[in-house]
């Protein structure tokens, strides 16, 4: 639990840029999905620029591309503004971007599982020139209808933090409809490892606390799994949100999303021990 490789890399990249260039370094969109971590970086001088308001970034600024990545046209816009672009896109997201670029054509169809409003998915869509279908869940997968005379390839990809079990169900469904489909499981191994570890933990505890940002996709999926497999589960951002009712449970487990700082996890653990 705690920072995954991609998030840790993005945070370290931002800290290095702030040390080198001083205050006034921009992140295009929130660097990571954790308010506590972002607050610390903002206090050090990091500025967050909304992707839709890229024109507000001054020409010649230093701009960090966040861990979730962005569409290529945004990077091109920044370069045209003579900005110094520092790419902190997670390497696994970067591989996904290359995959979308590789399979996008007038005849091929790309089907991507993921959250439509998530930064990574929006960025990936920017790499598709045509025939890009985005689905959020199994129900939406059932509604996918491709041309019967399709000549090109059908490729199934996934947001790197998507639920592995949901992806497996969608894969089976689409294979039954389109036997020729190419399946590229682009879910980050860390996501699957956390889900498996959580399932194991749920069987050993009476209550489960999931720590992470409210807008973190992988944290919300951990919470959903915890709710489905544990007597009591709650999603908190930090130790201040631990409810008093947690006292009535004998065994309490904790897990955390991939963008949750180690410090926050330690503070939650300490607070729980002090409640005993």
What summary fits the major beta sheet?
4 strands, parallel
- Estimate the mean pLDDT confidence: 92
| Widest sheet, order of strands | 2-1-3-4
Strand percentage, roughly?
Answer: 15-25%
Characterization of the model:
The protein contains ten helices and eleven strands. The protein is α/β, with parallel strands linked by helices. The strands form three sheets. Strands 2-1-3-4 form a four-stranded parallel β-sheet, with helices on both faces. It has helices at 5-21, 35-43, 72-80, 91-103, 119-125, 138-142, 164-177, 189-202, 217-229, 262-275; strands at residues 26-28, 47-49, 62-65, 84-87, 109-113, 132-135, 154-158, 182-183, 207-211, 232-236, 252-256. The longest helix is centred in the N-terminal third of the chain and has 17 residues, at 5-21. The chain is flat and about 65 Å long. Helix 4 packs parallel to helix 5 and helix 8 (189-202) packs parallel to helix 9 (217-229). Strand 1, helix 2 and strand 2 form a beta-alpha-beta unit.
């Amino acid at each position: 639990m705690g920072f995954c490789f991609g998030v840790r890399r993005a945070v370290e990249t931002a800290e290095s840029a702030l040390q080198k260039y001083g205050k006034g370094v921009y992140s295009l969109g929130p660097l990571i999905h954790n308010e506590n971590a972002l607050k610390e970086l903002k206090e050090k001088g990091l500025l967050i620029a909304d992707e839709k308001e890229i024109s507000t970034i001054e020409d010649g600024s230093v701009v960090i591309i966040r861990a979730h990545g962005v569409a290529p046209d945004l990077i091109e816009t920044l370069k045209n503004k003579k900005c110094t672009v520092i790419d902190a896109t997670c390497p696994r997201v970067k591989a996904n971007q290359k995959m979308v670029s590789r399979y996008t054509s007038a005849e091929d169809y790309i089907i991507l599982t993921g959250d439509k409003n998530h930064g990574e998915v929006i960025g990936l869509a920017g790499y598709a020139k045509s025939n890009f279908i985005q689905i959020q869940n199994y129900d939406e997968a059932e509604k996918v209808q491709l041309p019967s005379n399709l000549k090109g390839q059908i490729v199934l990809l996934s947001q790197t933090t998507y639920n592995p079990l949901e992806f497996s169900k969608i894969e089976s469904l689409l294979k039954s409809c389109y036997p020729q489909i190419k399946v590229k499981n682009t879910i980050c191994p860390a996501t699957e490892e956390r889900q498996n570890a959580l399932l194991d933990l749920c069987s050993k505890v009476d209550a489960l606390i999931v720590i992470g940002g409210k807008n973190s996709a992988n944290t919300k999926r951990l919470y959903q799994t915890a709710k489905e497999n544990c007597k009591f589960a709650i999603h908190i951002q930090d130790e201040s949100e631990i409810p008093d009712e947690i006292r009535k449970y004998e065994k309490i487990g904790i897990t955390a999303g991939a963008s949750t700082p180690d410090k926050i996890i330690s503070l939650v653990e300490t607070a729980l021990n002090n409640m005993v």
